[in-house]
Specification:
It is globular and about 45 Å long. The chain has two domains: 57 residues, no CATH class; 82 residues. The chain contains two helices and eight strands. 10% of the residues lie in helices and 33% in strands. The chain is mainly beta. The termini are far apart. β1 and β2 form a beta hairpin. It binds zinc ion (ZN). The site of zinc ion has 8 residues, from loops. Zinc ion binds next to loops.
Length: 147
C-alpha cells in the first residue's frame, strides 16, 4: 500500500505529525510525486508543482547545499533570546528543498555551503509555546559541513 492510499490521519507520513514523528526517530521523509517527481518537504497529500495526488513517501538524504538564507533579527517571542539567528532553504541531495534553522552565524554561511540536518530537543522556551502534540516533535537544525 502506498502513502496516497492510506487515510490522512496523524499516523500518515503525509501529515506534519507523521513527518515529525519519523524525524524524532531519525528519518527525514519526503513526498515524491508519482506524476512529475517533485520532492515535497514536508510531505503533503498533493503536489505543489503539478497538482498530482499520487504521492509516494521516501526517506530523504540529510545532506544538501544552502540554496538561500537570511538572518532573523526579530524572532517570535519563544525564540527571542536566540536572535539573531540564521535560517535557510536547503536543497537536499535528492533535489527537495527544506526550510530550517542553520546553527551558524549569518556571516559564516554562503550560498552553496554544504550542510547536514540534525535534530535536537526543544528548549524550555520553545516547550512553553508548543501545542501539546508538538512537545514530541524535535527541532530540526542544519549544521555546516558533512559531519
Ligand atoms: Zn507533481
Amino acid at each position: 500500500m502506498t502513502a496516497h492510499e492510506t487515510p490522512l490521519d496523524s499516523d500518515s507520513p503525509l501529515t506534519l505529525p507523521g513527518f515529525f514523528s519519523a524525524l524524532a526517530d531519525g528519518e527525514l521523509l519526503g513526498g515524491v510525486c508519482a506524476e512529475c517527481g517533485e520532492v515535497l518537504l514536508p510531505p503533503r497529500p498533493s503536489c505543489y508543482a503539478c497538482g498530482g495526488r499520487r504521492i509516494d513517501v521516501e526517506a530523504q538524504p540529510k545532506t544538501g547545499l544552502i540554496f538561500s538564507y537570511t538572518a532573523v533579527h526579530t524572532p517570535p517571542p519563544a525564540f527571542e533570546s536566540e536572535g539573531p539567528y540564521t535560517i535557510a532553504v536547503v536543497e537536499l541531495d535528492s533535489g527537495g528543498r527544506l526550510l530550517g534553522r542553520v546553527n551558524a552565524e549569518y556571516d559564516d554561511v554562503e550560498i552553496g555551503s554544504r550542510v547536514r540536518l540534525h535534530t535536537r530537543e526543544l528548549t524550555a522556551d520553545e516547550r512553553s509555546i508548543a501545542i501539546e502534540y508538538e512537545l514530541e516533535w524535535p527541532m530540526h537544525v542544519f549544521e555546516l559541513g558533512d559531519g
